[in-house]
Write a structure and sequence with these properties.
single chain, 472 residues, alpha/beta, Aminopeptidase, Alpha-Beta Plaits, four-stranded mixed sheet, 12 helices
């Protein structure tokens, strides 16, 4: 199917598509703050309706709305996941422009949510519009599921999937995480690491005290630091008792995939402005650790006085937030249990361990319908094969969406970002050319999904015909 008309439509409407994204990015939707979330959900529903979707909004308990939109028809259905909430902005002084100004500078759109992941959502809806305007009704069914609690661990989504499992039964799922690497190669992932997000708390006096008491009153900040020092070695190795025994060996087919993955180490070092990698890793070992290595990351520590100006204070409490990225066969339950035992046997029973959020890992085959469609379309748009990761080093509620049936629904993930998009950092941005290219790419993914679905129907019909002839 020639895509000349489709591409022309996208190019003619590229500015309008960007303006839609800017309007959405100018609406703050930080889930942790909770302000403006309903208005953003309504705008997302309007964007879907504008493209012709039948929509429904689900509000479960006190959570933020989940927007559901369905396009097309047919025996083959695919779920498209997205989220309209964004990360906290952090320090405003580190932003070149306002995080919700959605300004365009040097052909880049700067805004919290531009990369993660309002940009992907608007690009995919734009692709559906362009496809319908140039080819007619979608030949497959696409079900968009867009939540507002990705940054909170997706509690409403988990409840939604339990109560409305029939709405998520599909032949495949398309996730919203992906980018071009430092060599401008599109990265496609066939699954995600899981996550266990925890908070450790150490307690001292009933309140902060003058630091003159530091010699005789226990300091929870020191207590917490000492406990943390037992969890990861100075070389960056996770030292929790029994942790590595729960990590499954890498499957032979995944070892084969790793041989094809070459990280642009020099380019990444320049992008991150770092001098080297943990434990001096390089080459295949580095790629293996990124994709199949479990992690323990201190995401933040809060205690005492951290604002401007000197203040001699003895903290009353110290808090650290950690995330563990989970690989086969690690689960959040195992991690919490091992961490608690590890601290207890080292006389840190007073340190509280509180689970804030979790999600299991999810993994699919390169031979799935969605994986084949994504890899085939990549060559057509990006003029080079995509870099395929067996697991994305990031995490998300993939298990909630893709695990509602047995066997689990296969997932594939890609996006419109690039190596310098800073999705969880100041100056989050996307390049406008990548956005437009992403619209064209998703249009071709739709086409390949329809082609593969048609082939599957033909094969199924042939089998049924053979069976019928056999009975005759």
């Amino acid at each position: 199917m020639p895509f000349t008309r489709f591409d022309r439509y996208v190019d003619r409407h590229a500015n309008a598509f960007v303006e839609r994204l800017q309007a959405l990015c100018r609406m703050p939707s930080v889930a942790a703050r909770g302000t403006g979330m309903r208005a953003v959900a309504e705008t997302v529903e309007q964007l879907m309706q504008r493209v012709g979707a039948g929509t429904r909004t689900f509000k479960l308990g006190s959570g933020f709305p989940i927007v559901f939109g369905e396009f097309g028809a047919g025996t083959h259905c695919f779920v498209v996941y997205g989220h309209y909430d964004v990360q906290p902005v952090g320090s405003l002084s580190e932003w070149a422009v306002g995080p919700f100004a959605a300004s365009v500078l040097d052909d880049k759109l700067y805004a919290r949510g531009a990369s993660n992941s309002k940009g992907d959502l608007v690009a995919r809806l734009a692709a559906v519009e362009a496809y319908q305007k140039t080819f007619g009704k979608l030949p497959i069914c696409l079900r968009f599921v867009v939540e507002g609690e990705d940054g909170l661990g997706s509690p409403s989504l988990y409840r939604f999937t339990r109560e409305h499992a029939e709405m998520l039964r599909a032949d495949g799922c398309i996730w919203d995480d992906g980018y071009k690497d430092t060599k401008e190669r599109l990265v496609i992932s066939l699954g995600f690491k899981g996550i266990s997000f925890v908070e450790l708390r150490a307690h001292g006096a009933r309140t902060d005290l003058h630091s003159k008491w530091g010699g005789i009153v226990p300091n929870p900040a020191w207590r917490l630091v000492q406990a943390l020092a037992t969890v990861v070695s100075p070389k960056g190795v996770i030292t929790i008792d029994g942790f590595t025994s729960h990590v499954a060996p890498i499957a032979p087919e995944d070892n084969q995939s790793l041989k094809l993955i070459e990280l642009d180490e020099a380019g990444l070092k320049r992008e991150f402005k770092i001098g080297g990698w943990v434990r001096g890793m390089s080459g295949r070992a580095l790629a293996k650790e990124l994709i199949f290595g479990p992690t323990c990351t201190i995401c933040g520590i809060h205690t005492g006085h951290t604002e401007a100006g000197a203040k001699t204070v003895l903290p009353g409490m110290a808090v650290a937030r950690l995330d563990f990225r989970l690989v086969p066969d690690l689960t959040s339950h195992i991690v919490i249990k091992l961490l608690r035992h590890h601290l207890d046997v080292r006389d840190f029973k007073d340190i509280e361990v509180i689970e804030l959020a979790s999600a299991p890992y999810a993994k699919s085959s390169i031979n799935s319908v969605v994986a084949r469609a994504a890899t085939n379309a990549a060559v057509e748009v990006y003029e080079a094969p995509a870099l395929v990761y067996p697991l994305d080093p990031a995490s998300g509620p993939v298990g909630a969406v893709c695990g509602v049936s047995a066997p689990p629904v296969p997932v594939v993930s890609f996006g419109i970002s690039y190596a310098g998009s800073n999705p969880h950092a100041p100056n989050e941005n996307i390049r406008l050319d990548d956005f437009t290219q992403g619209v064209k790419y998703f249009g071709r993914v739709i086409h390949h999904l329809a082609q593969i679905a048609k082939e599957d129907n033909r094969e199924r019909q042939n089998i049924e015909n053979v069976v019928t002839l056999g009975k005759i």
